[in-house]
Amino acid sequence: MVSSDQMQNIEKEMFSMGMPVEALMEKVGIGISSWILDRQGLIENGAIVLVGPGHNGGDGLVVARELYMAGVDISIWCPFPLKKELTQKHFDYAIRIGIENLESKPDSNSHLLWIEALFGLGQSRIISDEIVHLLNSKKTFSPDKLISIDVPAGLDSDNGNIISKTSVKASYTMPLGLFKFGLIQDSAIDYVGNLERVDIGIPDKILADFPETQPLRISFADLSTFVWPMPSKSKSKYQRGRVLVIAGSDKYRGAASLALNGALASGTGSVSAFLPNSVSSALWSAHPEVLFLGDLNIFQDGSSDFSRVLNEVDLNRFDSILLGPGLGTAEEKDCFGSDLQDFKGLLVLDADAINRLSITSKGLEWLNGRNGPTWLTPHLEEFKRLFPLIDCSNPLKAGIEAAKICSSSVLLKCAHSVISDPEGKTWQIGQVNSSVARTGLGDVLAGFVSGMGAIGLATDKKLDTSLLAASALMHAYAGAFCMKGSTASTICTFLSELIKKEST
Asked: What is the pLDDT of residue 438?
């Protein structure tokens, strides 16, 4: 993913290498028109291109020309004076070949496809309320027939925020070249619709100059290329990943059960647990595979005390420890001691472990002193408690900053979850499915990544945050494609099936 400045620099470098501006505009326009022509249902009643003053408008005019030449009933509307010479040339040619130029604004109550090519990349101009209202009226009347080229009018392509009072709400946005940061942020979801990237043929030579820390958009298709840790078939269960789960309370019993389900779904060799008695008393029937190590003490408010149990077991027997789901939010001021800090395996802190860490006297200093890898899996409110000084208006930037200052990998859970490591490598999930926003799925995710991390350590003796990113992506995929239901338990069962398929 790139900023608007980076994308403009890519185009400048292509031009300096000899790519004519005219050729790039042709490539863009033909690519978009071909995509539209492959979807005849979009243009069965005709189309209108809304032409802006710059090169985005020129792209739209090439689309208009190609659709017209393919026999589509098409017209154009130019609400602003044209400012770019190349755009003016395409406009003049469109008129000469017979494309109608509308003198007044088009009727939004029609079934025509509207192709919005008003401003595109790096917008700063405030869009008039009249135009935004017109375009959103169109979206309301025929919600599947409003396409924006590159970036919807009124949307900041770097942070996903609206530039004026509102932005166009497109049914499809077609980013040119590479995905822009702003299009993948949660704040842009209601405006960009479905994203369909247009390949402009960026040379590998240019892409090779980007640093390893350039944020990557990951999608479900990337799961087929990820190399999952694969323990040798000769390894015993204790050599295939050992997970310790410390979770649950009298207040939140289900969280512990779901976290255990997530760990078991990963395929890790061994799962042990410290649990409240209210959960452990039924463990033999609900989770007979789990080795129960002891009960958590319960505070008067029903939350769990975990600090005492850490002395009852050799933590280095485990590859990963999950701490947090459903513990409750008791003010255990100094519950994070040297035992967890000295643990050399993977420590996964989720939910109430993060909440409690945020009120300790050590906080981020404790994380920076950890001797092993740490993965944090907060949702936005938990993130704000632990990182109160970080601006969370842009989750991508917030996740990158947090990972650096706490020397931990951070999975910031949101619609487009962000995964970042302390060195600045960053991934953002580029596909959204509301099925993942359900009670309990965060507990499943915490258990699942703990199991995958344990397998990774047991197999390769080291961890890369790409495994956390791939695990979060697999979890999102399970939520999107589980056909048997959308509850956390049902999705977890499907997740287990997916991982078993990957390992065979």
From this structure: 73
Question: How many CB atoms lie under 10 A from the CB of residue 69?
Answer: 12
User: Who's near 179: CB < 8 A, 6+ residues apart?
Assistant: 1, 2, 195, 197, 217, 430
Q: Does residue 222 form part of some domain?
A: no
Same domain, 174 and 305: no
Q: How far apart are alpha carbons 450 and 86 in whole angstroms?
A: 55
Q: Is residue 70 part of a domain?
A: yes
Which of 474, 475, 441, 268 has the alpha carbon at shortest distance from 351?
Answer: 441
What is the per-residue pLDDT for 269?
Answer: 95
| Residue 84 pLDDT | 95
C-alpha 359/C-alpha 347 separation (Å) is 19
Q: Cβ distance 166 to 136 under 8 Å?
A: yes
Check residue 441 and give its pLDDT. 93
What is the token pair recorded at 158? 């770097």
| 8 A C-beta contact, residue 475 and residue 482 | no
Q: What letter would DSSP give residue 142?
A: S
Pairwise CA distance, residues 283 & 263, whole Å: 15
The answer on 258 and 164 residing in a single domain is no
Say how far apart CA 285 and CA 283 lie, in whole Å.
5
- Gyration radius from the chain CA atoms: 26
Number of other residues whose CB lies within 10 A of the CB of residue 381: 10
pLDDT of residue 188: 95
Name the residue type at position 501.
K
> What string of DSSP letters covers 300-369?
TTS-EE-TTGGGGS-GGG-SEEEE-TT------TT---HHHHH--SEEEEETHHHHHHTTSSSTHHHHHT
Specify the number of domains making up the chain: 2
Residue 331 contacts by C-beta under 8 Å, 6 or more apart in sequence?
356, 359
In a domain, 219, yes or no: no
Residue 128: which of 85, 76, 169, 163 has the closest Cα? 163
User: Residue 197: its pLDDT value, please?
Assistant: 97
My answer on whether 371 and 483 are in the same domain is: yes
DSSP label at residue 407: T
- In DSSP terms, 47 is beta-bridged to 74, 113
Domain residue limits at 346: 241-502
pTM, two decimal places? 0.94
Collect the ranges in the chain with pLDDT lower than 50.
Answer: none
Residue 483: burial class (beta carbons within 10 Å; 0-12, 13-18, 19+): exposed
Sequence-ordered alpha helix ranges (H) in 162-232: 189-192, 204-207
pLDDT at 307: 84
Long-range contacts of 291-296 (CB under 8 A, 24+ apart): 293/244, 296/246, 296/248, 296/249
